[in-house]
Fold these 2 entries.
Entry 1:
Amino acid sequence: MSRKNIFIVIGVVLVGAAVVFANFYFQRDKGLTVTTEAIRARDLDAVVSASGKIQPKRLVNISADTPGRVVDLAVNEGDRIRKGQFLLQIDPKSLRTRVESNSASLRAAEQSLDQLRQGAETSKVQLQQAQQNLARQQDLWRQQLTTREALDKATNDVKAAESAVQEREKQLRPQESRIAQEHATLESARYDLSKVRIESPIEGIVTRRNIQEGETAIIGTMNNPGTVLLTLADMSIIQAEVEVDETNIPHVQLGQHAKVSIDALPDRSFAGHVAEIGNSPIQTTAQGTQSTGTQATNFKVVVVVDEPVPEVRPGFTCTADITTATRKNVVSVPIPAVAVRELVYDANGQVIKEPRGDKRRRPSAVEPVASAAELKPGQTRKETEGVFTVRNGHAEFVPIKMGIAGDKYFEVLSGLSQGDQVITGPYNSVRGMADGDLVKVDNNRKTR
């Protein structure tokens, strides 16, 4: 190949490369392809979602008040029960024997009291006879018809009878106290005997049975869950006990409406309201042994379900969506359209626009507009929430003030008006976009 041909080939290659580079350069200068959405008014609901468990409003643990062997067990786990329905019986033999023994002791004490009372009555009669004899002797003495010895004897007989009456009355009081004690002991034994037959205090469902017929029940204590024989739940009023994050708990208030979704009952939700808000964070086992710096802090919130839930069981996993705020017909912006940028403000709080220069290098989402050394007196720089609008083929960052957050939209308090076109995507483009970037709107991408 001649030298001339070599130069011709090199020239063709260079021209081709220049064309490709120019084509790529000018295509890039056409800007980012973005999607937009027109701002309009809509209704918004701020919702706090939290998960937890379904629990009955009233849960009763049945424990034994007296120890003994279970001789009759009338219910199974899952049975529906009525108030006053018989549940189980503990062997009453020992308690019945105690009642009979106390009854015999009481009868013996009452008989002794009757004897003492009869003796007291006899002593009173003897005192009355002695007083009458003394009166006769005194009359005869005045008439000089009796001796001094007979009068003294009659006087002594009265004193002895009075002493006997007092002694009998003293014996009555301790015996009466003994009878009262025997009566109280008998009533206590009868009460214990009545406790061997356990009946349901509520209407509901047996959610747990920890005892079998023939096993020995021990006296229940609050600190020992192993002593619980049966667990009963009143399912007429159920509630969702959920855990709400500390960042959301200030927005939750008593009486707010909620929707409860139960995993075991899909495609359905049930209306409810907030009935209880915990004042202290939920304590977990890990908090006692590990640092709580990286652990989430949650608060217990109780949502009472206002409508019947069929075939519900305690412990079902659920989610409560609590409506913490509602706005009607307010200007709103799609959540993906909102971005955060650092802007420079003058002393009057007005945004100082950066001169539009070469935008081929796109800065990061949080790249400073100006360094601290470049700020003039009175100027400040701070991160600002806003959106990008399309103005003459360029993206323009517009600061906004937001209100509540809905499911897909933020409430806009200021900065935008209905009809404004805001850039909503793609997400990565919005995240890295800078004020003044060239953009090309292609809303057909939404349907692709």
Entry 2:
Amino acid sequence: MVLTPPVCSVNDVRQGQRKDRPTFHPSLWGDFFLTYQPPTAPKRAYMTERAEVLKEEVRKMVKGANEIPNILDLIITLQRLGLDNYYENEIDEQLLFVYDSDYDDRDLNLVSLRFYLLRKNGYDVPPDVFKSFKDNEGNFVADNTKTLLSLYNAAYLRTQGDKVLDEAIIFTRSQLEAVLDSLESTLADEVSHALQTPLFRRIRILETRTYIPIYKKEAARNEVILEFAKLNFNLLQLLYCEELKTVTLCEENAAELLPEYMKDFYLHLLKTFDSCEDELGPNKSFRMFYLKELLKVLVRANSQEIKWRDEQYVPKTINEHLEISRATVEGFQVACSSFVGMGDIITKEILDWLLTYPELLKCFSTIARLSNDIKSTEREQIGAHHASTVGCYMLQHRTTMNDAYERIKDLIEDAWKDMMKLFLTPTEQPKLIAKIVVDFARTADYIYKKTDAFTFSHTIKDMITMLYVEPTLF
């Protein structure tokens, strides 16, 4: 007899909301970053001077590239090595040249790379060109694994209605999975990494740290670019460690206020706002008003979730749930915190826009909330917690938890598609704003990829070590 998995009822969801308090592990780092010792001043000066020389050599390469394949290969290399931000104007000019120029539209690898880079940089190029690479059976004709991988990565810059890209992802994923075990180690690592996280969704600095040793093994590598990438990463690492030292000092001071918990925390928060306003100065201190307003939104939303928990209320639909839980994932607050500390590009109009709760930020918050809930629902229902979006979906559609997980993964993909469409849509905001929001979505994707790493931070200890402790080797 075939057993049918049980579907969810409201009592099932409510019974999962037990009142035991969750526990969290202590920090793994202690005062590690407080003891950080930077390199000697002469060594740092040499690193900085050498990096400047290499940077200008690479600039000549970017300006001098004049063939479409070479231009695309150079740009994707600089992006993956974290160097493209030094050549924004030159790359913009080259991509405009690529967009306006004829190219070999019979080369699937070239077509995929062109599509990827143009869409990533805001060009709303149509995906119809990929239809010509399908055979009579509907399969894509790809000569090799590199081409499959290029198509796979390009397809993830899809929007709603890009059917050919949806089909490309299904086809390339199955093909890449089939050949993975037979590939040589370096290419196998690239494919395995892509199957876990497509290129567009990777955190920039983490991709840089991961790609440097891969690029080092490539026969066609450019030694000047490689040396600059290593130096640049190591210099950034020095800066990050200095900042982490300052943050750790601040956290130690804050910890002294915790015994009375809420009262002292609130007073410390007010002091933090005051110190931020002082540091911003008279021309930018107004920005803190927006962060305060969004923190009020966060408090109200958290209070509503507490009420749900205490009353054992389960929202009737996942949309009702998201109206509150999108706020408690703190996406708007994180974005505002970032904007507050930025330069003159952040205007009052941008911060006013943020308080309109724009769809771009909603997409990011949806990705973060749903990704969080997939990884944390079972654990949280053991403790004192309200029903998650997973439980809500189970109740709304009378489905099993596993089925709810799969459908919510589809909703996450829909949010990525919507985000890409908004990213490609011209607005009054500088393009940098949309890029920052997409970066936050990438971070959420990484944090909740395997587990709830925000809660169980020991699961990303190796990543933290790779980024902030171990320099790249020459």
